[in-house]
Amino acid sequence: MNDLIQVVDSPEKMACAGRQLREIVRQKEIAPNSVLEVFERWAAALDDRELHEVPGVTFLRLWLRRGTLEPILLRELGPNSLNGGWQADGRARLQAFPLGVVGHWPAGNIEIQPILSLSCALLGGNCCIVRVPSGLVGVTQRVIEKLRKVDRDGLLSERIFMATFDHSRIDLHEAMAQAVDGAMIWGGAEAVSQVRGLQFPHWARVLVFGPRLSAAAMDAETWGDGKERSSWCRRIARDVWQFDQQACSSPQTLFLERGAGCDPDEFVKDLRQAFQEENRQHPRLQVEPALTSAICLARASWLLDNVDNRALFPASPDWTVLLGTGTEMPNPTQGRTLSVLVVDDLLRAISTFDGTLQTLGLGVKDARKEEVLARAAGRSGVDRIIKLGRMHVFSSPWDGTELIRPMVRFVRHVPSQD
Fold first, then answer.
1. Does an H or E element contain 286, and which?
2. pLDDT digit string (tens) for 291-314?
3. Domain count, the chain
4. How sure is the predictor about 139, in pLDDT bands with cuts at 50, 70 and 90?
5. What CA–CA distance (Å, rounded) separates 396 from 393?
6. CA-CA distance, 127 to 15, in Å (whole number)?
7. C-alpha to C-alpha distances, 381 to 71, 248, 375, nearest whole angstrom
8. Residue 200 sits in a domain of what CATH number?
9. Cβ-proximal residues to 290 (8 Å cutoff; 6+ apart), any chain
10. Is residue 287 part of a domain?
11. For residue 310, what are the domain limits?
12. How far, CA to CA in Å, does 404 sit from each of 69, 73, 76, 96, 392?
């Protein structure tokens, strides 16, 4: 397994990779601290000009830092987990052991997702089989090559088998499922359903991150403050631009609370300026024809549906702001298309949310008011509630579940001498 991304064309090759990885887990223990040391070097290596244009790499560098991951490890695996070993639990003791081999089925529209997914399993001491979607092979290869350079002893590299094969090869999906002890599945409804339907071993743990949407909300006191409005608009633009609005945590709709003396037109003017500036700093290098068509259709439909609707956008499909009213989120267009809806009551908008909404970005000045909104959002199925500008801060729990703990086994030992 010298090449970290291999074209797999037979179930036997997948099964063989699984057996080799399982033997590595059985023979070689690795403490979270050792993983963090390699991750830290990997993060530094990713600060390379040739990778700056890859969406999400800036975020990936921050994610792999010890300062990001160590608190997650301590919270999920216990205060003394960094060096591995047993932890006291009354008269007994506990230790986190890896599941074994964890399979990863990342979505094909987020460039760094194969790396994000496998990093969670590696922190639990597991080995990984990763199916890299065909469209992400080039990007993933560039990122994983940086790991090879800094992982001098092959500590993590030997624990990773990255495979690419056509999504229609059910036999290879089945072989991969049979080779693992756990799975992390990401993507759209159809892809997730297909992978969940595979015949995993009966002991395998399956963690699913299915398709989700995200929204943002601001109270009138916040967005109506002309002195701070530009700063808030820049935060919103940053959330929209990261991952080109394709991530589950990308805001598709912004709800503005109506307020006396607050003019939504003034707000969208500042938002347009923030979008223009973000577009200058991070221009889109290319856009698929289908996305261009979807953006043009969204602009036209919005203006034709209601004479009171307005829209701001350049001649190109670089970005779009659709201004209107209502509490129902429109169907997402993506492609840096943000619907801005003025509502009388933010609670009414939140009451329309269901389990499809993952993240709610907030800009609210009154802490007591935010508490009411946060509790309402939690009851309505929202898993993450966070300040605008930080909607893509990847942390645990994610989608309401932990990231590392599900892929380990906590073994309880009561010494026989007692």
1. none
2. 999 999 999 999 999 999 999 999
3. 2
4. very high
5. 10
6. 14
7. 26, 14, 10
8. 3.40.605.10
9. none
10. yes
11. 213-387
12. 10, 7, 7, 10, 18
